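So, does this match?
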Amino acid sequence: PLALASINAHSGDRLQERPAGDFELGHKIFPDLANPPPTPSVRDDIALADTIGVDAVSLVIAPDIENAALDSLARTMDLLRRDSTTLIVTLGYRGKLVPEVGRVPFEELERLAVIRRIVRRLHPDILLPAEDPYRVGARLLGQLPVERWQSYLLRASSAAKRLVPSVQIGVSISGFDHNHSTL
């Protein structure tokens, strides 16, 4: 009965093919990047994004990416950005692409410097300063206290917004649980 009442409340609503702002299609392009994107990935991923008409593309960038790779990536992204595609950039972790022995150190100052380089060169619409802190991050860095993540995310947000005030900051949390709800 409650479900029927809910449906009946909207019985006079006009259906729209695509209500404004309600749904956007996104696609992760390229493998996680520490170097310029491979040519086959550029060709295939850009073509796929264009064919399916995505509204957003997502990239994961390793902290040890070189400036030349960021410049190459910026030129590639210009192809997609011409048609107002939203660019989402996530800062991954060192050692995710090629696992290192033992724990990877959490190099906060290095990550903040990379964020500044990413924002300067790519001008992302949305920046995720840490890829899934409680799943991928915990696997590579160990379990960091919530306060450490909060401090880092605030500093990362401040650094990015100083360069591009319109950049939106987000947090990737697929492994989120109630014990970390203060993040």
